[in-house]
Amino acid sequence: MAANTLLPHFSSSTKSCCFSSSHRSSLIKSRTPDLGFDQRQVLTNQVKKWESLVLSRRSREVISRKKERGGGVARCTSEGIERRMLIAETAARAVPERFKVVALMACVMCLCNADRVVMSVAVVPLADKFGWSSSFLGVVQSSFLWGYIFSSVIGGALVDKYGGKRVLAWGAALWSLATLLTPWAANHSTIALLAVRAFFGLAEGVALPSMSTLSSRWFPGPERASAVGISMAGFHLGNVAGLILTPIMLSSIGISGPFILFSSLGLLWLSSWSYKVTSDPRDSPFISQSELRLIQVGKVDPPPANRTGELPPIRLLLSKLPTWAIIFANVTNNWGYFVLLSWMPVYFKTVFNVNLKQAAWFSAVPWGTMAVSGYVAGVVSDFLIQAGYSVTLVRKIMQSIGFIGPGVSLLCLNFAKSPAVAALFITTGLSLSSFSQAGFLLNMQDIAPQYAGFLHGIANSAGTLAAIISTIGTGYFVQWLGSFQAFLNVTAGLYFITTIFWNLFATGERVF
């Protein structure tokens, strides 16, 4: 039907063109009929023509749709840039503000402990330079604690009154200054060195009360143990950073190198902290309303700020046995912790005759694992509480692991015959001791949320006194007996006795 319709048209057209000379000669040579065309060829050409028209129409439609979606090349490019900027901004907002706060707390806790450890390593070449005995070495090591013992109570009260942000900022600024002045003081005189280290401890005493109070303000109850675990993981990683970087910088730059490095990092941290953090999430200009509701609803009776200037009820706090359970736990924890922190490099050098760099590496490994296990303890603690176990039971379980584990490990350390085995026992003991972070360290907020900073200061001052005794006592024990064994046994026994007292009198319920 289509062919018949098309034939007259093609016939007339071909007839008109057949009379041209070129076409006529072509017809004569090919001896074709006078019509001179193949109907199938004409139909094929016409189909191809319609197909090309259809394809061109479809291509125009596709291009049109692409233009409608993208607005052309320029529009697509600009929209792509805007889209990427929007995604980046959304991703930044997607990170909860409380996570940023705990990350900054972990950083400053890392610097806090790294600044302490620098002296624990640098004291070895200083002792060789000035000819210090083991007993006087213990005095130098403990000088940090002379100021620390006073600032813990005062700092805790200041945190309760003025908030953790401001107190921690001033503390970081002052201890960074003291760190910077330490090598100058060592070269000037022994008295100057002891005074600067005491001032350093005075500034650092506010760190733990500030961290504890800020964690309770910025995190709901079911996340608080994990938040403290992250902050304390930074604290323990400060040991790793200090123990590894200090020997390298001592050998390459000199005694002043590590002190300049860590003090500069402290001032750098201060610039971010002052701008981005508030003591209370309700005062933050960056927090979303949904996150603020989560923090407030997740808390049980959030404590009001103590801005009246009244002293906390010290007699009332000390009249309850749960308070003494926390104090004794802090005493035992600091006793063992500062013995290992201050004397571990000296222990490996004295007992196993390893050089300073090797001693630093053996000493750094346990603190690295302690950072991981402390976070795990926090996560497990939060999980058990959310699963329905009582806060009292969870705190007792975590603290028992945190004391029995290191006690057994210190007893086994007496039988170590190589530095690798000794490092294994110390690593196990310190890793298990980090479970205390989900024990007595959190229990202060459980029993006295309104006075948690002040209670932390009282417990930390008692613990600091124990740390002074243990740090100096270790030096005298080593000098008199020529061995670390006796003091390790005393420390292990203290761990076991405090575990019993804790399980008898500790509670997770609010007392004050």
By DSSP, the count of extended strands is 0
Helix/strand class:
mainly alpha
Mean pLDDT: 78
Stretches with pLDDT under 50, minimum 5 residues: 1-40, 66-79, 85-92
Overall 3D form: globular
Give the percentage of residues in beta strands.
under 5%
Q: What Rg, in angstroms, do the CA atoms define?
A: 38 Å
Describe the biggest sheet? Answer: none
Helix content: over 70%
Note the gap between the termini: 102 Å
Order of helices and strands: HHHHHHHHHHHHHHHHHHHH
Q: Helix segment count?
A: 20
How would you describe this protein?
By secondary structure, the chain is mainly α. The chain is 82% helix and 0% strand. It is built from 20 helices and no strands. Helix 14 runs antiparallel to helix 20. The longest helix has 34 residues. The relative contact order is 0.12.
Give the arrangement of secondary structure elements.
Elements: H1 2-18, H2 21-30, H3 39-70, H4 72-94, H5 97-130, H6 134-162, H7 164-188, H8 190-204, H9 207-218, H10 224-252, H11 256-276, H12 289-297, H13 314-318, H14 321-351, H15 356-386, H16 391-413, H17 419-433, H18 440-447, H19 452-481, H20 485-505
Helix pairs in contact: 3-4, 5-6, 5-7, 5-9, 5-10, 5-11, 5-14, 6-7, 6-8, 6-9, 6-19, 7-8, 7-9, 7-11, 9-10, 9-19, 10-15, 14-15, 14-18, 14-19, 14-20, 15-16, 15-17, 16-17, 16-20, 18-19
